[in-house]
Write a structure and sequence with these properties.
Elements lengths: L1 E2 L2 E2 L22 E2 L2 H4 L7 E8 L2 E11 L2 E4 L1 H4 E2 L3 E2 L1 E7 L8 E4 L2 E4 L3 H8 L4 H4 L4 E4 L17 H4 L4 E5 L11 E3 L6 E4 L2 E4 L12 E5 L5 E12 L2 E7 L2 H10 L2
Length: about 250
């Protein structure tokens, strides 16, 4: 397992090897096209550019409240580099065209994330189970519009339709929104950390949303991309649950 960060130069990340398991045919991320990337609710997704330590990285996030973006905790904090800085959110970016951009003024990570990273390391499932964060901005990011979200984890582990998004920077340019649809439900690994061996996440997709389709056909953000593996192929997410809901409602606005 490995966190899915990529530096701006788009170097691929390496992944740790797992023991052999039954192989499940995996779906791989593909570009959505500019029209879809800039159509609601997908237009609430954006690329995050930031600095950590002495390096520059890219990731993904989603407008979840008028002035706030939901993303992965490891984008915002790292054991070696500390807190990330100069966080720029480019909403609806596709190629060289975006809908808006702003620098964040406040950073939050879910309670327990820093402690888990400092104790077990950032690539441990105990860190992934807390791997969630949020950014607050001085002005509304999308004229008050936001993506809907749900803390019903059964939308990820049941029969609901799921689709994941992010700005992949491993096999693609890093500036094109990618999407991937799993062919099987997510499975619980540790707490709110879920995995799915029917899909693959690229570096740079970290922090991107996993949408689930609710009873009325509406799409809700139900998880956040946080990790990936190549042997066997698997994508890991931090599910939105009651703890995530309390975090969003208390710290994001």
């Amino acid at each position: 397992m490995k966190r899915l960060l990529a530096i701006a130069a788009l170097l691929p990340v390496s992944f740790s090897v797992w023991a052999a398991e039954p192989v499940i045919p995996a779906a791989y991320p593909k570009p959505t096209g500019a029209q879809l990337a800039q159509t609601f609710p997908y237009s609430m997704i954006g690329q995050l550019l930031f600095e950590n330590g002495r390096s520059f990285y890219s990731g993904s996030g989603t407008v979840i409240r008028p002035k706030s973006v939901l993303t992965a905790g490891h984008i915002l904090y790292d054991f070696d580099g500390g807190w990330s800085t100069n966080l720029l959110f480019q909403r609806g970016l596709y190629g060289k065209t975006g809908l808006s951009e702003q620098y964040a003024t406040r950073i939050y990570v879910l309670g327990g994330y820093r402690e888990s990273v400092n104790r077990y390391g950032g690539d441990d499932v105990r860190a992934f189970s807390h791997d969630m964060g949020g950014l607050v901005f001085p002005k509304p990011l999308a004229n008050g519009s936001t993506a809907g979200w749900s803390s019903d984890t059964s939308l990820l582990t049941g029969t609901s339709y799921n689709i994941a998004f992010g700005y992949g920077a491993e096999f693609h340019t890093g500036d094109d929104l990618l999407s991937v649809v799993p062919t099987a439900p997510f499975e619980s690994i540790s707490g709110a950390f879920l995995e799915n061996r029917s899909l693959y996440f690229e570096s740079g997709m970290s922090g991107g949303p996993v949408f689930a389709r609710g009873d009325k056909g509406l799409l809700f953000v139900s998880g956040i991309v946080v990790s990936g593996s190549t042997d066997p192929v698997a994508g890991g997410i931090r599910a939105l649950n009651s703890t995530a809901a309390a975090f969003i409602q208390r710290y994001l606005r």
